[in-house]
Amino acid sequence: MMVKMFSIHSSRGGTGKSLVASNISALLASEGHNVALLDFDFRAPSLLTIFQAKSSVRDWINNYLDGKARLETVMVDLTSNYGTKGKLLVGFANPDMEAMREIARKDRKWQMKALRKVMEMKDELAKKMGVDVVIIDTSPGVQFSSVNAVVSADVSIIISSLDQLDIEGVERMAEDLYEPFEKRTYILVNKARPHMFFSDESRKNLLSEVGGKFSKPLIAIIPCYCDLLLAQRVSLFSLDNPSHPFTWALREVARRLLELAG
User: Looking at residue 147, what is its pLDDT?
Assistant: First the structure.
């Protein structure tokens, strides 16, 4: 089985990276794909909070990369929880403070071994669990774990706001990380100012303005929705609100990702 792997990245926290990764995973699973979502944000893991699945976790991705756990004990099957047509499997990073400190102490030699484990994980997910889509929620910035995710991925998405710090951070990452590895990379602008979408002319101007800020092509521009900000972070917004414009936008992003990965 041919498995497609995508990394969801950002230059810093607060862009909505984990929200996008979790909701795209759920949307693809709802459409019949067998999806594995992996939490590689080892220094600030949030997927456990989003999915409220701590009681179902037998082992952590940290331990798999250390060679101390099997993939079968790491991946949590949440398919029945959300009633998706395809499988929705999630591998969680350990949220304990000591685990976060330990991963930060790992040296380059360990990280090279971890990269091999990530590639093994991709194959195992396909062969043992029937997964056809893998999505990695990476650590912000240029950490070893995010580099491993980007190198392993077929296509990478960088989430950015229109804040100047985000834009500059994305451009630095593109130059330092994505271009040397020649990775297919696209920008998803999240939390754009809503008034920019009031008319066809304003949308056209927005595309022109934003497109000129990044060296990588845009895959989507998503406005900042107040109801999304107020929604509980422990729910999958796209499944709860299938007709919402945010869901439509992410469904289109998911479709484009599959096309781009061939």
Answer: 84
Between the CA atoms of 62, 64, 68 and 70, what dihedral angle is there, to the nearest 10 degrees? Answer: 140
| pTM, two decimal places | 0.93
Strands 4-10 and 88-91: unpaired
CA angle 42, 232, 51 (to 5 degrees): 45
How far apart CA 218 and CA 158 sit, in angstroms, is 10
Place of tokens 């590689």: 40
The whole-number pLDDT of residue 203 equals 62
How far separated are the first and last CA of the chain, in Å rounded?
13
State which residues of the chain have pLDDT below 50.
none
Tokens of 134: 């893998």
Domain boundaries, the chain: 4-256
Residue 60 confidence (pLDDT): 97
Q: Cα(238)–Cα(21) distance, rounded to whole angstroms?
A: 11
Beginning with the edge strand found earlier in the chain, give each strand of the sheet holding 4-10 in spatial order: 75-77, 88-91, 35-40, 133-138, 4-10, 155-160, 184-192, 218-223
Q: Indicate the fold that domain 4-256 takes in CATH.
A: Rossmann fold (3.40.50)
In terms of DSSP bridges, do strands 35-40 and 88-91 run parallel, antiparallel, or are they unpaired? parallel
Give me 247's structure tokens.
Answer: 């869901």
Alpha helices in the chain (DSSP H): 17-30, 47-51, 61-65, 71-74, 79-82, 97-104, 108-129, 144-152, 164-173, 179-181, 200-211, 226-230, 237-240, 245-260
Rounded Cα gap, residues 1 and 15, in angstroms: 33
